[in-house]
Amino acid sequence: GQGWPGIVEAYRDRVAVPEGAEVVTLQEGNTPLVFAPYLSELTGCEVHVKVEGANPTGSFKDRGMTVAMTHARAAGMRAVICASTGNTSASAAAYAARAGMGSAVLVPEGKIAMGKLAQAVAHGARILQVRGSFDDCLELARKTAAAYPVTLVNSVNPVRLIGQKTAAFEICDALGTAPDVHCLPVGNAGNITAYWAGYSDYLAEGRSDRAPAMFGFQAEGAAPLVRGEPVSDPETVATAIRVGSPASWNGAVTARAESGGLFSAVSDERILRAYRLLASREGIFVEPASAASVAGLLATSEEGRLPVGSTVVCTVTGHGLKDPDTALADMAEVRSLPVDPEAVATALELV
Ligand code: F0G
Question: N6-(pyridoxal phosphate)lysine (modified residue): where (predicted)?
Fold first, then answer.
């Protein structure tokens, strides 16, 4: 291959894989860090958006999956299993296909976006739709992996989070140091844990002169970290972060405390407003869960909790194409026309 080799090769000294292992990669990582002029104007900050939808399967999960799958194959495993709100399953299915391994995915029935289900189907995963929540699925996946020869590739597998640290490295490498504030959507809380570990590594090694305050945002109907206790029936339009009992609870709490950050809840209405704003004003199409980071940015700015003049990075975690139903729900009536230039001109009010 040519160009960017994927996160394991690019960060060899930081992302360990077993001696002699052949890396399972789709050349994930090296995603754009895009300056956001409109968000900067609204907040009085310098806002950049880390576009993780640009990864091979359209979400940040690929950074961890390349590492987890490399370990699993090197250990001689034939199959992997995961629970997912959709993106982990899409990534696991793709990387398993690449590795020549099998995959089984447990998803909450009726609660995952269509694009993600399509990916799991296309990559040949065994898809099990569970009549329960993501939290139920994770418990089932853990029990299955404990009893049978399949590797669990959820972020409770620690090598996943080592791979996900590389997003923080890329941001520091691009900006020359860490931002002042980093905004993330939080579901199972692996990603905020991984980012904080990545920023901490760079700070300790003098590769950056600061570490950001970590701002973690949850959907109002699925905000266990904000409430301080698990939520038994989480609900939100942002299905990717519909998680009631985050596996990396302690990691998230440590990230917030050590960084001087915050957790806050954003309503579905605010999430959808940020979702539309990102697409219509910044040209960046993300899935609803990803827009929680930007909804939170705008809310904390309005509340005066975001120091003006800060350098801010918002991670947008997954591509908008993952969830076409949410986008199409906003669609105005679309005109039907004959093959006629005059009809086009009339429809566009050019005459
Ligand atoms: N954004 C998206 C698009 C996600 O898919 C997820 C998690 C998150 C944010 C939250 O990240 O869990 O590390 O706090 N999705 C998991 C999944 C739960 O199964 O795909 P987190």
Answer: 61
SS (H, E, C) 249-301: HHHHHHHHHHHCCEEEEECHHHHHHHHHHHHHHHCCCECHHHHHHHHHHHHHH
- Structural domain harbouring 87: 61-157
Q: Read off the pLDDT of residues 200-212 as tens digits, 9 standing for 90 and up.
A: 999 999 999 999 9
Q: Is residue 291 within 6 Å of ligand 1 at its C-beta?
A: no
- Asked, for residue 344, whether it belongs to a domain, the answer is no
Q: Which of 254, 299, 286, 326 is nearest to 42 (CA)?
A: 299
Give dist(CA 157, CA 71) in Å, integer. 11
pLDDT of residue 334: 83
Mean pLDDT of 249-266: 98
Which protein residue has the closest C-alpha to ligand 1 atom 10? 187
Shared domain check, 257 and 173: yes
Distance of CA 315 from the midpoint of ligand 1 (Å): 12
> Where is the binding site for pyridoxal 5'-phosphate, in residues?
87, 187-191, 317
268 and 311 in a single domain? The answer is yes
Shared-domain flag, residues 114 and 183: no
Residues 262-273: tens digit of each pLDDT: 999 999 999 999
224 and 101: one domain? no
224 CB under 6 A from ligand 1? no
